[in-house]
Design a protein that fits this description.
Blueprint: E1 4-13, E2 17-20, H1 21-24, H2 32-39, E3 43-46, H3 51-66, E4 75-79, H4 90-98, E5 104-108, H5 114-127, E6 133-140, H6 151-154, E7 160-169, E8 174-182, E9 190-192, E10 209-211, H7 213-235, E11 244-245, H8 252-261, H9 273-276, H10 283-293, E12 302-309, E13 313-320, H11 342-361
Parallel strand pairs: 4-5, 4-6, 11-12
Antiparallel strand pairs: 1-7, 2-3, 6-7, 8-13, 9-10, 12-13
Helix pairs in contact: 3-4
GO biological process, one term: fatty acid biosynthetic process
Keywords: Acyltransferase, Cytoplasm, Fatty acid biosynthesis, Fatty acid metabolism, Lipid biosynthesis, Lipid metabolism, Multifunctional enzyme, Transferase
Pathway: Lipid metabolism; fatty acid biosynthesis
């Protein structure tokens, strides 16, 4: 009997502080029109708490939707490129805070592709019998690593988290096929120069963020095209069989391209980049959670997703949704509130980085 990995729970976490394009224009040489016409983004969220807090709230919501006790989990996988610290991992904090004492826990970093990578490997683990109930999370606090003096990258990203619960099932449901890959020749076109090679004794307050937009777009299109062809070939499905497209939310123009490529009309393409910007590994699970809330995903729907991220990682997957599209319990838990606005949280980083760049220029 073939085992599948059914998605039984879903949830998201979005910080309360909202940074609009007009807010950004108060300290960057940009405007709402400049950002919207190039990216489709109108606002994004800024978190006052760390990545593990975002991940835990999203996880609690996903468990509530599945009506699953945390102690039933045997694996927690967190996709992130913005962990609270290098050691220990974010997943261990989630395990502790959920009280999921029987679950193995690890982080996965494929940048914006991390969540789909996580679904890919979690599904394989369930199919082989290695695990039975897995929590997959995508969580990012990208606003803490951006150079807030550089409009070409600072306007693109936001904070958030999303999660799914996968459970072993004999029904043909969940991730039917997936393909993940990496175009490492271009790994430097999207990179943050910060890590174990970082010289902490000579740190001047600047973390250079390399973002070569045109090259990223070109390679992303190529990589996702290949991945999409692979999953269609593996399943024998065609674009006529697809009910919805839920893509990585990186750029409105790229989403429009994918919709045309997959022959999915705008009415069946999930787009929320205008509200949250690019939340990296969190974009897919947030988009799925909202698609369910809005009634876009119907019982038995066939959904295609495609992603790309730093590395350059790429991937695509076809998901067959199960019969349940409503949570078993309320899954709208949120982060604790804050009296700080998004500008309150961002301006100190902008001013500190600006001062650091000026000091470096005077050397």
């Amino acid at each position: 009997m073939k085992i599948h990995a059914e998605i039984t729970g879903w949830g998201k976490c979005l910080p309360p502080a909202i940074m609009t394009n007009d807010d950004l224009a108060t300290f960057l040489d940009t405007s709402d029109e400049w950002i919207r016409t190039r990216t489709g983004i109108e606002e994004r969220r800024v978190s006052h708490l760390g990545t593990s807090h975002l991940a835990t709230v999203a996880a609690r919501n996903a468990l509530a939707a599945a009506d699953l006790d945390p102690n039933e989990l045997d694996l927690i996988l967190v996709g992130t490129c913005t962990p609270d610290e290098i050691i220990p991992n974010v997943a261990s904090a989630v395990q502790r805070d959920l009280g999921a004492k029987y679950a193995a826990a690890f982080d996965l970093n494929a940048a914006c592709s991390s969540f789909l990578y996580g679904l890919h490997y979690a599904t394989q683990a369930i199919r082989t019998g290695a695990h039975k109930k897995v929590l997959v999370i995508g969580a990012e606090r990208l606003t803490r690593i951006l150079d807030w003096t550089r409009r070409e990258s600072a306007v693109l990203f936001g904070d958030g988290a999303g999660a799914m619960v996968l459970e072993a099932s004999t029904e043909e449901t969940g991730l039917l096929a997936s393909h993940v890959t990496c175009d490492a020749d271009a790994r430097d076109v999207l990179a943050l120069e910060f890590g174990m090679s970082f010289d902490r004794f000579n740190f001047d307050g600047i973390m250079p963020f390399n973002f070569v937009g045109q090259e990223i777009f070109k390679r992303a299109v190529k990589g996702m095209n290949i991945a999409i062809d692979k999953v269609f070939a593996e399943t024998g499905l065609t674009t006529d069989d697809i009910d919805s497209l839920i893509p990585h939310q990186a750029n409105k123009r790229l989403i429009d391209y994918l919709a045309k490529r997959c022959n999915v009309p705008e009415s069946k393409t999930v787009i929320n980049i205008q509200k949250y910007g690019n939340t990296s590994s969190a974009t897919l699970p947030i988009a799925y959670a909202e698609a369910l809330e809005q009634g876009i995903i119907k019982p038995g729907d066939t959904i295609v997703s495609a992603v790309f991220g730093g590395g350059l990682t790429c991937g695509a997957g076809i998901i067959k949704w199960g019969q349940r599209v409503t949570p078993k319990q309320d899954n709208q838990m949120q982060l604790p509130g804050t009296d700080k606005s998004a500008l309150d949280l961002i301006l100190p980083m902008h001013l500190a980085t600006k001062k650091a760049w000026e000091s470096r220029g005077n050397e």
